[in-house]
Amino acid sequence: MEKLGYIILVFAAIAWLVVMVLDMVPVYPEGTIGLVSLLGVGILLAKVFKDRVVAARTDKYSKHVKR
User: Fold this and answer.
1) What is the reported pLDDT for 44?
2) Are 21 and 35 in contact (CB under 8 A)?
3) Could you give the maximum distance between any two Cα atoms of the chain, in Å?
4) SS3 content of the chain, % helix, strand, coil (to 5)
5) Residues 38 and 21: beta-carbon distance below 8 Å
6) Does 59 have pLDDT greater than 70?
7) CA 46 vs CA 7, 24, 63: distances in Å
8) Which one of 17, 18, 54, 66 is separated from 38 by 20 to 30 angstroms, measured CA to CA?
9) Could you read off the pLDDT of 14-58 as tens digits, one per residue?
10) What are φ and ψ of residue 66, in 5° steps?
11) How far apart are CA 58 and CA 67, in angstroms?
């Protein structure tokens, strides 16, 4: 059930982003600012996910190592 909820949420987020990008393209000069800001937010989110995955690996290692 939880995975289904995440799949639906990801699908809705992707659809929302596609609609935003398609609506910003016709408004050329001002839409470019929106597209650049979306790109920046996407890069920051990717960094957060990457850092979280690395932290989860190190957390798991530090919890299971005998001292």
Assistant:
1) 92
2) yes
3) 61
4) 90, 0, 10
5) yes
6) no
7) 18, 22, 26
8) 54
9) 898 888 888 877 777 777 787 788 888 889 988 988 888 877 777
10) -85, 140
11) 15
| Cα–Cα dist 1/47, whole Å | 28
| Amino acid identity, position 40 | G
Give the predicted TM-score (pTM) of the model: 0.55
> How many angstroms separate the CA atoms of 4 and 22, rounded?
27
The 8 Å CB, 24+ separation contacts for 12-19 are none
Token duo for residue 38:
């979306």
C-alpha to C-alpha distance for 17 and 20, rounded to whole angstroms: 5
Separation of alpha carbons 10 and 34, rounded Å: 21
As a whole number of angstroms, the distance between CA 29 and CA 3 comes to 40
